Amino acid sequence: MFDQVMSRIAGRFRRVEPRATARAYLFGLLSGVERKNCWRLAEQAGHARPGPMQRLLRTARWSADEVRDDVRAYVVEQLGADDGVLIVDETGFLKKGRGSAGVQRQYTGTAGRIENSQVGVFLAYASRHGRALIDRRLYLPEQAWCQDGERRAGAGVPDHVEFATKPALAGRMIEAALDAGIATSWATGDEAYGQDPGLRALLEARRIGYVLAVACSTRVRINQDRTAVRADAAADHLPVSAWHRQSAGAGAKGPRYYDWAWIEIGADGHRHLLIRRNPTSGELAFYLCWTPQRVPLSELVRVAGTRWCIEECFQAAKGQVGLDHYQVRHWTAWHRHITLAMLALAFLTVLAADATPTRPAEPNRPARSSEPIDLTVPEIRHLLGALLNPPSTTPSRLLAWSTWRRLHQATARRSHYRRRISAPSTA
């Protein structure tokens, strides 16, 4: 199966050397290497130096966007289903310094606060067979980067790249997926995307239904005279009979039950305000919904619950295939590493789906202690890590890599010391 995946992208590399290095890079991402950067992956592959891995990400001739297209096609081919949903969200990559493309002090949910970081906007595809990341865009802040030509040139940001908001980047990815022939009827995302009218208009124009989270202060029109009221105020006036307890899908600890209510906010029955209430804490969440045709409440609840799939993708991609382990600054290198990590995650997800036994659903059947759970992405990655381990490395090779790393670190330390000594004192 790995050979089949590699055959999909082999034609994207014009020469045999980068093609072989890409194969070794993917092997490394799937291995048990603790830190999946070029140094460690080169050592894992048996290379004497990290040069081939670094050239693969920086100067080798191949298009990360073309491989991204292959990843997207592979995911939809293997995991596609009539219940598929497109999900947009962002994740942060904590960084030091100011040279990495797109880095600045900004809020990131990864840290839960403002940190020096890069932010990537991602598109995931989720169905009953599994979920995987299928597209990515690096967010480029307007003032710190888009208007700084010298900084752009230093990080290799192409001239044609202009400022775009995160919802605009999400819209471009959705349009690219639809133009590529992805068959889906739904899209979802959190408040950062639900609050953007441009993204909602794009989805409606493409006849894609959406369930997008919005703030409690969002104003909607619900009565005959079309007076706009806050979403939380509308929820306060709902009778007890308006609430229905339904599962938003299975979580790690079983079905996720919430109380749900919906209010029609359009004259044609295609627009609704969906409200979720935590039965324990009473906390409310709100969603703007639009559908090309009428659908039941249960379908909106299903799509709303699917949004969490992209969080699971981020967790698996960072924890299993090193999505955030890169040590690159260049625009091209970032997109190449992220794309190869997405391919590695998609491969693991397809393996997990392929290994899941096809048996009729029996929701009321009690679990048997003698039956293990289905193979998961972390478990498959662990098994692959053991299988892909190279033959025993000689002591001389281990020492050679240790010497190389320490020499490189000594050079970096001297450079840092020299810069600090030459800097004017602030005392």
UniProtKB/TrEMBL annotation:
Name of the protein in its database record: IS701 family transposase
Residues in Transposase IS701-like DDE domain copies: 13-226
Stored NCBIfam families: transpos_IS701
SUPFAM superfamilies recorded: Ribonuclease H-like
Cited Pfam families: DDE_5
Species of provenance: Streptomyces fimbriatus
InterPro entries recorded: IS701-like, IS701-like_DDE_dom, RNaseH-like_sf
